[in-house]
Structure formats: structure tokens, C-alpha cells
Amino acid sequence: MTQPVMRQDPLTGHWVIFSTSRGDRPIRLSKPVAAPSVDPADDPFAPGNEHETPGESYAIRRDGSQPNHPGWDLRIVPNRYPAVSTLESDGLAQEPAAYGYHEVIIETPRGESMFSRLSIMEIADVFVSVQQRMIAMKSDSRLRSLAYFKNEGAAAGASLPHVHSQLMGLEFVPPFLQAEFDATHRYWEAEGSSKGRNWFESLLDAELSNQNDSRIVDRSVDLVSLCPYASRYAYETWFVPTRRNASYLNATIEEIEELARQVHGVLNSLMSIVPHVPYNLALHTAPLGLEKVPHYHWHLELYPRVNGLAGLECGFGCHLNTVMPEQAASALRVGSAVRTVNRVDSTNTR
Ligand SMILES: [Zn+2]
User: Fold this and answer.
1) Please, what is the Cα angle at 116 between 51 and 326, to 5 degrees?
2) What are the pLDDT digits (tens) for 335-347?
3) Predicted confidence (pLDDT) per residue in 205-230, tens digit
4) CB 107 within 8 A of CB 120
5) CA-closest candidate to residue 232, choices 322, 350, 326, 137
6) Structural domain boundaries in the chain
7) Where are the alpha helices (DSSP H) in 17-144?
8) Which pLDDT tens digit goes with each residue over 125-157?
9) Quick one: pLDDT at residue 33?
10) What is the pairing mode between strands 319-321 and 15-18?
């Protein structure tokens, strides 16, 4: 047995126990072995079933087709079962109404259940559309933050198999985002501003110069993907832009396309290591009105659900991880390299 070790996240202060031998435990409860199939007759996100969703707030229609009709490449619609809404309280309720927007991004017209099977160009369409809707939502001055996320697989919270993700506009700043924002601000005040490097720039400096136990998965001029030092989840990966910019609303098209390329690569690599593993993606971007602060970088986080959340995580806030991030990054890099070679043969990835 390898001795378990503990690591503390330098940003949030949370502790993670790394117990790699727990990854060898015999698992007798069933795990998904195949991607869920999408039944076109029972798919509210299929072309032809547009009437089954609320009217679209955004769409990519390269053929010039009419809103809420077939012909689209991507649609964004209000969530039929929203967690927050713009309906005002009837004045009788004791609690304030949970105000905000909750939209669903239907990422392809095809009956596909895995985001990793979309082409890089389709993934870039998703990330560009999210930015467009975020810019539109910003005009509602009641909103304080924007939360974009994806749940893939039932164990990660998905209720429909057809690939989709979600965007929320909220009247408050969610606690994880606030904690990151506060911690990076403290770092900036204490040492970042005098060094001219904010927390994320210092992180990239340190990670890119760490040659021996590298946690870097992929990198380009614009974006670096890495497995964080105190990863809470096995194969957890962060996608961090190199340019100082707190808000995804101000990300460039080059950065968004590079994000799509690296997310596509990492997800395909992950699926070759743990086939059909459920996962979440979460985009962290500065609260609204604070887009220009120097201490923060927008970034995307990937949490694979290899082990699920159990009593220690839910009851005590202490994560158990069975894969060291150095080992995770190495495995994810191998998958990416194999695919890069394959991609040379296929000129059209769409
Ligand atoms: Zn974050």
C-alpha cells in the first residue's frame, strides 16, 4: 500500500487526501459501460421538436432558417424547469424570489450524448455562443454573476442524454467564485501587485517551470491546461488563459478557439482512460462590474466523477482523490499526443 498524503489548495485552503491505493479497490457496484443513447422520438432537443422547448434566445443558423424551426447548428433556450427566474414574487411569499436567468445550450442537432464526440469547431461554437449570451445578460443590472456549467452523465447531474450545457445569470456571487475572487485579491494586495504577477500568472510561472513532476497537460501561447496541485477529483483539469483578463466576456476569439481545442483533447484523452466517465465543467469568470480587476483570470474547470462523492466529501468537505495530479497529467498528455498524430490524417474534424 502507498502511504496516503495530504495537500492543501493554496487558493481556497481546502484539504485533499490522496490515497492512490484506494483506486485499486474492487468495485462491485455497476459503472456505466456505454454512452447513453438518444431516442429521437423522445428527445425534446431534436430538430423538429422545437415546440417542446421554450422559444430560443439565441441560435446559430448557417442556413438562414427561421427561429424555433429545424435548420439550426446550436440553440439556446430558457430552461423549462428553471432554478431561478425573472418572474417577480407575488408579494405573498416570505422568502425573496430567486431572480435570474437559466438557459440551456443545445450543442448539436445530432442525437449525440458525449460532448467529447463533437468536433473542435462545434465546441468552439458552444463557447462563442455562451460568451454572446453572457454579454446580453450583462445588460440586466440586477445580475451580479454568470455561471456556465455542464453536467454529463446521470452521476454528474444530467437528466437528458442529448448533449447540452447550462448558463445562469444570478443576483448573487456563488461561494466558490467569491472565495477564489477574495483569495486572489488578498494575494494581489500582499505580493502580486509589487511583483507585477497576479495569482494565476504566478501559478502558470511555477507550473511551466516545474519540469520533473509536471502537471501541465497541454499548452499554447494563449492557454494552458493543467491538473491542479490539490485536485479534488481524479483527473481534475483547469484551463487557464495566459493573458491577464478577469472576464470571459472579454476573451478573444483566438482564446476561445484554443479553449475548444484543448477541452476537446483533454476530454477525448480522459474518455480513453476512463470510458464514459461522468463529469462537470464550470467556467469561473469575474462577477459583473468587476471585469477589469487585475487580480483574476477567467478559467474553466473540469471535474471527472471517477469515484463519485461519498460521505467524507458530502459530510465533511474533505475530498479523497485516488490519482495524483502528476500521474493524471502524464496520462492525459499521452492520450492527447496519440490523438494529435491521428488528427494529421483527417483533414476535416467536423
Ligand atoms: Zn476556479
Assistant:
1) 145
2) 666 555 554 443 3
3) 999 999 888 999 999 999 999 999 99
4) no
5) 322
6) 5-23+36-87+94-345
7) 120-137
8) 999 999 999 999 999 999 999 999 999 998 888
9) 62
10) parallel
What SS3 state is found at 248?
Answer: helix
Retrieve residue 204's grid coordinates: 502558470
Cα 283 to ligand 1 centre (Å): 7
- Name which CATH class applies to 5-23+36-87+94-345: alpha beta
Distance from the alpha carbon of residue 223 to the mean position of ligand 1, in angstroms: 15
Q: Count Cα neighbours of 180 within 13 Å in the Cβ-side half-sphere.
A: 17
Are 16 and 231 spatial neighbours (Cβ–Cβ below 8 Å)? yes
As residues whose CB is below 5 A from the ion ligand 1, the structure lists: 180, 284
User: CA–CA distance from 131 to each of 84, 98, 105, 243 (Å)?
Assistant: 20, 23, 12, 17
- Rounded to the nearest whole angstrom, what is the distance from the C-alpha of residue 23 to the centroid of ligand 1? 26
> How far apart are the C-alpha atoms of 337 and 308, rounded to whole Å?
28
Phi, psi of 214 (to 5 degrees): -65, 140
Dist CA 114 CA 179 (whole Å): 31
* Average pLDDT score over residue span 64-83: 94
Q: Residue 332 C-alpha to ligand 1 middle, in angstroms?
A: 20
The Cα–Cα gap between 126 and 135 comes to: 14
What's the gap between Cα 24 and its chain centre? Answer: 28
From the CA of 179, how far away is ligand 1's center (Å)?
9
Cβ atoms of 225 and 10 closer than 8 Å: no
- Beta strands 100-106 and 237-241: pairing type? unpaired
What is the chain's length? 350
d(CA 30, CA 127): 33
3-state class (DSSP) for residue 131: helix
**pTM score of the predicted model:** 0.92
